[in-house]
Prior knowledge:
The structure is a single chain. The protein is mostly helical. The protein contains 8 helices and no strands.
Amino acid sequence: MPLAAACNPNVIEMLYVAPESVLDQSLTGGLLWLNRHLFLSQRARKALTGYALNSKDRYRLKNNEGKALMHYIRSLRVCLELFLTGELNILRQDREELLAIRNGKISLEEVDKMGADLLEKIAATSTTLPPEPDYQKLEKLNKELIELYNE
C-alpha cells in the first residue's frame, strides 16, 4: 500500500493490468483493483520520471542495453499521459516504436531528444490529479482488505 501510494512504477502498474490479462483474482485483489484510482496522485511525476532517469543511467552503465532506453521513454510517456488524462495506461499503442528503441533502430541522439521533449512537457503539464493520495480513503481500504482477507 505505501509503495502504491507513492506511485512506485513497479507496483502501481500492476494495478493497471488489463482485466483480460488477469488469470485469477481473489476478492481482496478485486477490491484493490476497483479502488486503484485512489493511489494516483501528482506524486507520479517524481516517481515515474525518477524511474525513467534511472533507466537511462542503467543504459550507460550496462554497455548500452537498449531495454533500459525503451523503459526510459515508456515511463516518460506513461507519466505525460497520466497527467494529461488522469488515467494510467500501460497498454502501449507505441509498442513498435518502443521495440525499435530497444533494438537500437533509433539513435541515441533521437532517444535523448525524445526524452528531453517529454521531460519538458511533463514539467509544464498541469493535471487534475490530487497532489497527494487521499490517505484516509486508503487507510479505510486497507482495513477493508485486511477484514476481507481474514474472513
